[in-house]
Amino acid sequence: MLSQIVTVTGVNLRSLRERLGSSVVAMIGIAGVVVVFLGVLSIAEGFRAAMASVGDPQTVIVMRAGSDTEMTSGLSGDTARLIIDSPGIARNERGPIASPELFVIVGHPTKKDPSDANVPLRGVSPAALDVRPQVKIVEGRMFTQGTNEIVVGRAASRQFADLTVGSAPKWGQNRWQVVGIFDAGGSAAESEIWCDARVLQPAYQRGNSYQSVYARLESRDAFQAFKDALTTNPQLSVTAIREPEYFAAQSDVLNKIITSIGFLIAGLMGIGAIFGAVNTMYNAVASRTREIATLRALGFGSVPVVFSVLAEAVLLSVVGGLFGGLIAWAAFDGYQTSTMNFQSFSQVAFAFSVTPKLLATALAYAIVMGLIGGILPAIRAARLPVVTALREL
Amino acid sequence: MKFLPIIWRNLMRRKIRTIFTLLSIFVAFLLFGYLMAVRSAFNMGVDLAGADRLMVLNKISIIMPLPGNYSDKVRAIDGVKDVTHANWFGGYYQETRNQFPNMAVDPESWLRMYPEFHVPEDQKKAWLADRQGALVGADTAKRFGWKVGDRVPLQATIFRSVRPSWEFNIDGIYDSPVKGTDKTQLFFHYDYVNEAVPPASSFANSVGWLVIRVNDPEQSPAVAKKIDQLFANSPTETKTDSEKNFIAGWAKQIGNISMIMQLIAAATLFMMLLVTANAMAQSIRERTSELAVLKTLGYGDGKVLSLVLMESCVLALIGGVAGLGLSWFLVEYFGDPTGSFLPAFFLPPRDLAIGVLMVLALGFLTGAIPAMQASRLRIVDALRRS
Questions:
Q1: Is B160 within 8 Å of A338 when comparing Cβ atoms?
Q2: Which of A112, A235, A279 should we substitute to test contact with B (largest number of B Cβ atoms within 10 Å)?
Q3: ipTM tops the 0.90 cut
């Protein structure tokens, strides 16, 4: 049986060259689906990675109760003070590791387009770098407290016009001085511009108020106790959320849009490609009618025939899938872009990411398309009545 | 027309092939229709933007307010016909995931500014008279099951320190005969919020943005310049632009979805072109001797050519029109696949027309080569070949 399968499949594949035209069509079809599938999902993957890779469960974000984004939150200076002094926050020689912050957006053009994009500008407190150990100044230096100096995230510097060390952007009446570029491990923070919160407050008429407090917990397990301390304090009406959960929620809307539309498109294209593959395989079987009948007459069973047709279909889909994967990887992986985070209206820069996992999924999808496309023609090949088939021209 | 039976017979020769080719074309155009709807959704109705409307924003960014007295200052500028203002309220209904656009506006001038929002006259009157009243779009009313007369609470975000929960009377529901108009918004009285805001707050007596109608759309750039110059070097500088540019800029911030959709549509149609062309070529190749017989019977080259072309066009038309039809139906009756994030999700008639042209192009292109080959057949060769 096994040797029959090998022989028949061998015969089948060797004759593939004669049906090259229609086989290539099926392969291109599957490759096209894979390219689109990967293209769309690499956007979702890249965005998710940018939003989620900050995921440090030891870091917690405190906002006003009822706010799901820093943008709509607001905390008075006194509230911020109370939060910082709550139990459970780690301390170092400078005191509690907590940073009350302001989050606003400024209109600033991208490199590709002169019209304004909503660039996030974050006012941070001295402990900001202690709260986020992953943030490193990679060029220039950190801003000096109390001055109008700013540091720019690496992705923001790449995506938006004139945000390099030495440039001096002007937003409204305020002129700022870029003194450094920071790296945040590819996370969403890299899309931001940082300045001193104390300088940002008057510039944006915020008095002594903040929007959020970023704090580092003593340990991961300290979260519940910290949260309880805040919620039971009658002076406070705030919500605490772990950083990974916050950023996951922030990417929720966009992810939902991309994946729902992406799967719909890839699904429909896949169905189209399957129909194309079915046609190709039917033609392949039809053009080999006499060959298959001869094999059957010689005593080969129907199982090897089914197998050989399926093998051909899968081979075509694997080649098409690999080809499409290669194109998608070369074309999309690492492509830098930015989009608007629907929850806070601010720009997030990210790179398309064609991960090995996505590639594997796409290849599996291609094989499934091939199998579905091959099954009907394979059954037909196996059911060919030998005598009439031999007579067919 | 009299050739239809023979074309039909030819198509039915290999039923399976015809059916699957039809299905491929069908799926391709179903997808095409869908992609165009997604594209129009991400353009956020930029085509519907009022040509004579301008937006005035704080120059720093959209989240910064403008002083309330800017309305009157702008109204005094030459070329400005009407002014209205709005504040983003950012409230949600019951749970944070139930977000939709809700704004505090000046009701009378707002409705004057946006005549595309149709409100029954009695509802309009009731809303104008009711300080706690709200006017809601038909889509959002449907989403939450709100009816005229309901009293609904919205949870505040930005204005939470003023009051965490705000109650509104649904006085009216607006609809619009214009496809793609955003019917997810909720408007309520600016005074209702402004009176509740403490006078010391930076929110007090400030507005989010102004919307302006100009006398002459041709003069828009000049008027915009005049407005921005008026406030130049003041503590609050402005940025004025046409509504169209504003929406386009907003859409652009999401990314070039339009281009991505067009690329995918092009890739899909190209794939289908290959699949169909392949099927047609195969089918003609199999019928070489038949075509030779037809020619022997006196069918001219031109007639054979048009027979084959008609066959491919019939195939494309059946599959393509059915696909476009279904996509139109799905978009129209099932709408937004994401739930509620894409208010302008519809299939513009222009794209539908482009789709039909594509169907015809597909029919001609896939039939062209086989048809040429068939018409050039020499009878003797063809008969001998079999």
A1: no
A2: A279
A3: no
Q: B237 and A172 in contact by Cβ < 8 A?
A: yes
Question: Closest residue of B to A118, CA-based?
Answer: B61
Answer yes or no: are the C-beta atoms of A120 and A155 closer than 8 Å.
no
Q: Find which of A22, A25, A210 to mutate to test the B interface (most B CBs within 10 Å of its CB).
A: A25
In chain B, residues with a C-beta closer than 8 Å to the C-beta of A285 are: none
A273 touches chain B (CB under 8 A): yes
- The residue of chain B nearest to residue A24, with distances taken between CA atoms, is B274
Check: pTM over 0.90? Answer yes or no: no
For residue B102, give the nearest of B49, B170, B150 by alpha carbon.
B170
Model confidence pLDDT, tens digit, residues B266-298? 888 888 788 888 888 888 888 888 888 888 888
What are the boundaries of each domain within chain A?
Answer: 2-52+252-391, 66-236
Q: Which of A28, A173, A261 has the CB atom closest to B38's CB atom?
A: A261
In sequence order, what are the beta bridge partners of B66?
Answer: B207
- Are the beta carbons of B337 and A279 separated by less than 8 Å? no
Q: Which residues of A touch B202 (CB under 8 A)?
A: 205-207
A25/chain B closest Cα distance in angstroms? 6
Q: Do A107 and B60 touch (CB under 8 A)?
A: yes
Summarize pLDDT for B177-232 with one digit per residue, the tens: 888 788 899 999 999 999 998 887 777 889 999 999 999 988 888 999 999 999 98
B54: closest CA of chain A, how far (Å): 16
The nearest CA of chain A is from the CA of B124 a distance in Å of 31
Return residues 242-271 of A near B (CB < 8 Å).
253, 256-257, 260-261, 264-265, 268-269, 271
CB contact under 8 A, A272 and B31: yes
Q: What is the pLDDT along chain A (393 residues), one digit of tens a residue?
A: 778 888 888 877 887 777 787 788 888 888 888 888 888 888 888 888 877 766 688 899 999 888 888 888 888 899 999 999 988 899 998 889 999 999 988 889 888 878 788 899 999 999 999 998 889 999 999 999 999 999 999 989 988 999 999 999 988 778 999 999 999 887 888 889 999 999 999 888 788 889 999 999 998 888 999 999 898 888 888 999 998 888 888 777 777 777 888 888 888 888 888 888 888 788 778 777 788 888 888 888 888 888 888 888 899 899 999 999 999 999 888 888 888 877 777 888 888 889 999 999 999 989 998 898 888 888 888 887 888 777 765
Using a CB-CB cut-off of 8 Å, the residues of chain B touching A204 are 60, 64
